[in-house]
Write a structure and sequence with these properties.
By secondary structure, the protein is mainly β. Helix content is about 10%, strand content about 60%. The longest helix is centred in the N-terminal third of the chain and has 17 residues, at about 5-20.
């Protein structure tokens, strides 16, 4: 799948997801983030990336939908195939949750546990490097949904199945099924007159057998955390419209690769801005 075709598919998925927001509520945003110490397995240099994102979430009669597409543009340290300029990647994530209380019409009285859900989703990607990855992930499993006066958090134990492509050796890889511990959160608070949002995710994915080089994979840890200032609210544009703030990404054993392979660990600061409409 070419980068252009992947972009067209992502646009179609975005329109379908947004059309589905004839729903109880919805939120759509575009974002930009930047970091200069990203990594890729097999590359021993830090990589700068400009990342443009489109995110849509909505709630409907029986649950909720999440859709995100990122366009990632690397610097020359992560070159595209047969060239010296930076690679381009498109990465798509979709997840649907069916909520116990919505499906059954029952209520829960379990303190901070507000609901249970069953999540089902997928990841897709395309990147124009020599490795030419074509990620295809299927993820499903139960989720505990927490609610607090200042925000929310989800914690899930997921079934994880991945297929990918290794262009270096010219093979498609059907990884072993494994598990994923997945968490996400969004908290609102204030530091004096400054309204803040702390949001992010954490994924721990188990070993998934051998990769395309015949090497045993290792468990992968991946987390993103952002502390966002609600600039829109401070400027009188409305709450949760324009947010700007710093973030941090940490990855260990990226894509299941581990030392002595270089580029398997990421530790980078980021800056992000997002506009909700």
């Amino acid at each position: 799948m070419t980068f252009r075709k992947a972009l067209c598919i992502a646009a179609e998925l975005a329109s379908v997801s947004m059309a589905a927001s004839a729903a109880d509520w919805s939120d759509t945003s575009i974002s930009y983030r930047y970091g200069n110490k990203f990594s890729e397995p097999g590359i021993d240099k830090d990589i700068s990336k400009d990342i443009i994102g489109l995110t849509h979430v909505d709630g409907f009669k029986y649950g909720s939908n999440f859709f995100n597409v990122d366009i990632l543009i690397s610097d020359q340290n992560d070159p595209q195939a047969n060239g010296t300029s930076g690679a381009q990647e498109i990465y798509v994530v979709y997840a649907n949750q069916l909520h116990f209380t919505k499906v059954t019409g029952k209520t829960l009285d379990l303190g901070v546990i507000k609901d249970f859900a069953w999540s089902t989703g997928f990841d897709l990607n395309s990147k124009n490097t020599e490795f030419a990855p074509k990620v295809r992930k299927f993820i499903t499993g139960p989720v505990i949904k927490f609610g607090f006066p200042f925000g929310w958090a989800d914690l899930g134990l997921m079934y994880y199945k991945e297929k990918n492509h290794n262009g270096i050796v010219g093979t498609n890889v059907n990884f072993d099924a494994t598990y994923r511990i997945a968490a996400a959160w969004g908290f609102n608070f204030a530091a004096g007159p400054v309204p803040l949002e702390l949001n992010g995710f954490f994924n721990y994915t188990g070993e998934k057998g051998k990769d395309g080089f015949g090497t045993d994979t290792k468990p992968e840890t991946w987390t993103n955390i952002f502390l966002m200032v609600d600039v829109g609210q401070m400027a009188g544009l409305g709450k949760h419209t324009l947010l700007v703030g710093p973030g941090y990404e940490y990855v260990k054993n990226k894509f299941g690769s581990s030392p002595p392979t270089s580029g398997t660990k990421t530790s980078t600061a980021m800056i992000k801005g997002e506009w909700h409409f």
